[in-house]
What does this fold into?
Amino acid sequence: MIDLREAQSIAVLTGAGISAESGIPTFRGPGGLWRNFRPEELATPEAFARDPQLVWEWYLWRRRLIAAAEPNAGHRALVELERRTPRFTLITQNVDGLHDLAGSQRILKIHGDIWHSRCSACSYQRRDRSTEEMPPPCPECGAMLRPGVVWFGESLPRIVWDEAERAVSQADVLLVAGTSATVYPAAGLLHLARYVIEVNQEETPFSDRVAVSLRGSCGEVLPRL
Ligand code: OAD
It folds into this structure.
């Protein structure tokens, strides 16, 4: 069994479960459905093309929840782990920014950032803290702005993804916390790792294939690790 205190290089992959104790519903857990839509029905370019207002309303709802949220003990434990580890990379599927707020330094946001908006037609993008209103048209080309996140069917940001793959394949340990590990390519990172420790309240498709599977909440288990 690997002792995390001895590890020179640690990669971490987090998902919505680490923010659940901050009051942000996960995608596939209780409270995750918004107006009975599954994320796969709204987080797609096709859904945005069909009904941008609806998709924006969902993101504005999530932004309001996130704006009221604080990082929890799970986020803070990862800040401490980074401080103690010579080579550390935090890869997150979360777009909520709570790892930044907790104080994590090296963060790879493979699914983007909910506090960004970008143009659906040109390369314009900006920080966007609006929680009530849909953004105005793109100031550069007049097309519609969209949330700066990655949707189903879209590629992940290339440079960020390459770095994530490199970090995982070079790490002594991959710690996977609070993700259902069902959405690819993110879940594929588990195949690149030498040694995986999973922290989750429930079983996942990987639980019986990882080196260590710890059942419990991130807020409880990560500080103990
Ligand atoms: P999911 O909602 O699929 O999974 C959340 C996981 O966290 C589940 O396995 C829960 O058992 C676990 N969980 C819940 N509360 C927990 C807690 N307090 N401590 C530990 N574990 C807990 O969320 P993700 O795996 O993040 O993508 O979903 C992956 C992607 O699907 C998201 O990034 C998003 C979504 O659609 C895009 O929007 C592209």
In short: The mean pLDDT is 95.
